[in-house]
Amino acid sequence: MTLNTTYEKIPVTTLASGFELFFPLHRLEGRRPGPTLGLSAVVHGDEPLTNEVVRQVLMRLDPAELRGTILAMPIVNTLAFESLTRHTPIDMLDLNRNFPGGPSGWLSEQMAHVLGTRFVSQLDAHVDLHTGGVFPTVDYVYLFERSRELSMAFGSTFLFAPSNPYPGTFSIPAREKGIPFFTAELGGGSFLDAHYIEHGVRGVMNVMKQLGMLDGEIVRPPRQTIVTEMAVIRPQVGGMLHPEIGLDQLGKEVKGGTLLARVLSPHTFETLEEIRAPFERGYVILLRGGLMRVHPGDYGYMIANAETARD
Ligand SMILES: [Zn+2]
User: Fold this and answer.
1) What is the per-residue pLDDT across 197-237, written as a single tens digit (0 to 9) for each?
2) How far is the CA of 101 from the centre of ligand 1 (A)?
3) 87 C-alpha vs ligand 1 centroid, how far in Å?
4) CATH of region 229-308, choose from 1.10.630.10, 3.40.50.2300, 2.40.50.100, 3.40.50.1000
């Protein structure tokens, strides 16, 4: 199947190897006027599933049925993707903590600056797609100022409205421009990929319906919950992580004190750490879906406080 897009390259800089660094960009113009929606994927290089979500969205869209324009960047951090790392290998920085960046900063800051001035500057709304990375699996969307309708429309069961958002994220150029932006977190860990690709495609289509770019009903889950208090549980020691709850528990309620996983020494096999659920009642937002190696300080589990959640 062929794409109905025009393909462009947004130049960033010349690398030490002499190769040109650029951002790949697909432009899909609808036959009728409407807003410009930006999609971005693989800002973190270890989240390749989002690239496939963008490909499938572009394949399924018919310009005859589209109002407005899609500007889709299927892979933002090409250098990090190549090494399958979260951070840009050349300067070891997390691109998603270095916005708005600047033309004379570190490489990641230069990339952030170009993204703001050459990509987000063209948009009326922006959705940034993420996953849990190589190992964890995740399912929620962020709820930011100005993004309420679009975040809800995406159709995830859990929405997270953080009281202290991470600094330096891709939300900054959108906020400076005054347009809605949100981050969707879906899948990862190479578990349930087909399910999460479909979830992502449906979510983007829902956002387009909310923006009036596509006709049709928004597909929503039976219930949506906004959480405001989230515990990010990072193992204090590394080793082999043995999960005590399965993938089927993602999005489910968990009682405080429940054993989520154990970290075993790969040498002596003794249990070095037990990871337990905080909060009297919590929702499992991110988990580890199988037996795997874990570093101290990795994203282990994310549990939202059910007591401070609202429908
Ligand atoms: Zn990410």
Assistant:
1) 999 999 999 999 999 999 999 999 999 999 999 999 999 99
2) 18
3) 10
4) 2.40.50.100
